[in-house]
Amino acid sequence: MAAVSPFARSSAFEEPRLQGREQNIEEMYSVPENFLEIEVRNPQTHGYSRKMYTDYEIVCRTNIPAFKLRHSSVRRRYSDFEAFRDILERESTRVNIPPLPGKVFTNRFSEEVIESRREGLERFLSIVAGHPLLQTGSKVLCAFLQDPGWDKSQWL
User: Fold this and answer.
1) Per-residue DSSP letters for 100-150?
2) Spatial separation of the C-alpha atoms in residues 116 and 139, rounded to whole Å
3) CA dist., res. 154 & res. 156, Å (int)
4) In this structure, are residues 107 and 89 in contact, taking their beta carbons and an 8 Å threshold?
5) Which stretches in the chain have pLDDT values below 50?
6) 20-42: per-residue pLDDT in tens?
């Protein structure tokens, strides 16, 4: 009697495949049930000497009902992100809020530093805004992402 390889296909383990229907064109290319796209882009440096700062455009596209607008664009500076993160931590004790990209003390207005920070801020926002508990339970999340008049002093 020949030994059977443990890797050989056996009909004993095969289950019948589920028979589904094919998707139509509309289903394939329609908007997904829930989507959230966040992009941090277009950094701009303002001021001069010791009063210089960089702000970033946050573009949000979504159909999640918790968000008031389907499409929005606001500008925020790094200190706004810091305040937002602090407010989120106080507001959401059940959610571990990720860190922001670190503070930079030298060459902070170089293109490389600004681009690295932009990428880190985008990662941070994607994680935070994509969290289901924050989407439904955070008062500050939608305001930070969508309200052009957002002011951290209203939340502190």
Assistant:
1) PPPP--SSTTSHHHHHHHHHHHHHHHHHHHT-HHHHHH-SHHHHHHH-TT-
2) 28
3) 6
4) no
5) none
6) 677 777 766 766 677 889 999 99
